[in-house]
């Protein structure tokens, strides 16, 4: 399907290659204990995970700032579990979360095997909405940085996926036409619809067990990429 035309493969990072939920849980486990907060981690994460996704959507849509994202997702989580936390402590946690998150390096199963398979055959790139100061650390810490040619983040682009400009910038930097490019990501809105809006092919890594759709081909394990490309 893609083999005949694709020369460049663009990956999302968080929730696609880098196991955000596992690394995030380990980070919270560390900083909640460090700050002597008597909170059950599983109760905290049960509230935090959907709240974080909700606030990232607001951030993508430029309805909140980076600092609001970092504060409000924690504030609402603590409110929901009935834990009163001072603004000062929330700000400390927000800072320490970013500081420690990239020190964990768990990847989704088969990430390295797939990158090893693809890298001699295609030029590989990253397009991410993550923050510039930690995305490169994540790539280096998980030992996959060397596989990628161009690494485009939303702070460099000045806009976030699914805005067309971030994809157009990535294509320009990679010096490739959209019809020869494939975007692989977990977010239907940011990755799949965003990429398709500027003419890229798309492959949906269904990391969140979303329902079937007809927007593009769906995979549930990265290893399936080897049978497609």
TrEMBL record:
<dbReference type="InterPro" id="IPR023214">
    <property type="entry name" value="HAD_sf"/>
</dbReference>
<dbReference type="GO" id="GO:0008253">
    <property type="term" value="F:5'-nucleotidase activity"/>
</dbReference>
<protein>
    <submittedName>
        <fullName>Noncanonical pyrimidine nucleotidase, YjjG family</fullName>
    </submittedName>
</protein>
<dbReference type="InterPro" id="IPR011951">
    <property type="entry name" value="HAD-SF_hydro_IA_YjjG/PynA"/>
</dbReference>
<dbReference type="InterPro" id="IPR036412">
    <property type="entry name" value="HAD-like_sf"/>
</dbReference>
<dbReference type="InterPro" id="IPR023198">
    <property type="entry name" value="PGP-like_dom2"/>
</dbReference>
<dbReference type="InterPro" id="IPR006439">
    <property type="entry name" value="HAD-SF_hydro_IA"/>
</dbReference>
<dbReference type="Pfam" id="PF00702">
    <property type="entry name" value="Hydrolase"/>
</dbReference>
<dbReference type="InterPro" id="IPR052550">
    <property type="entry name" value="Pyrimidine_5'-ntase_YjjG"/>
</dbReference>
């Amino acid at each position: 399907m893609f083999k005949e035309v694709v020369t460049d493969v663009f990956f999302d990072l968080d929730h696609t290659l880098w196991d955000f939920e596992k690394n995030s849980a380990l980070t919270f486990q560390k900083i909640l204990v460090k700050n002597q907060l008597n909170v059950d981690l599983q109760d905290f994460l049960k509230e935090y995970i959907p709240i974080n996704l909700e606030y990232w959507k607001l951030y993508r849509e430029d309805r909140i700032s980076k600092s609001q994202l970092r504060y409000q997702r924690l504030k609402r989580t603590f409110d929901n579990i009935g834990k009163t936390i001072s603004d000062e402590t929330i700000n400390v946690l927000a800072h320490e979360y970013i500081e420690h998150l990239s020190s964990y390096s768990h990847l989704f199963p088969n990430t390295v095997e797939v990158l090893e398979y693809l890298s001699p055959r295609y030029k590989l790139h990253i397009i991410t909405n993550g923050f510039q100061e930690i995305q490169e650390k994540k790539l280096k810490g998980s030992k996959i940085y060397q596989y990628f040619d161009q690494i485009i983040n939303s702070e460099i682009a000045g806009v976030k996926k699914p805005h067309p400009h971030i994809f157009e910038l990535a294509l320009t930097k990679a010096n490739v036409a959209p019809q020869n490019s494939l975007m692989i990501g977990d977010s239907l809105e940011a990755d799949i619809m965003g990429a398709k809006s500027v003419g890229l092919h798309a492959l949906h890594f269904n990391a969140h067990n979303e329902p079937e759709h007809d927007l593009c081909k769906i995979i549930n394990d990265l290893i399936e990429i080897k049978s497609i490309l």
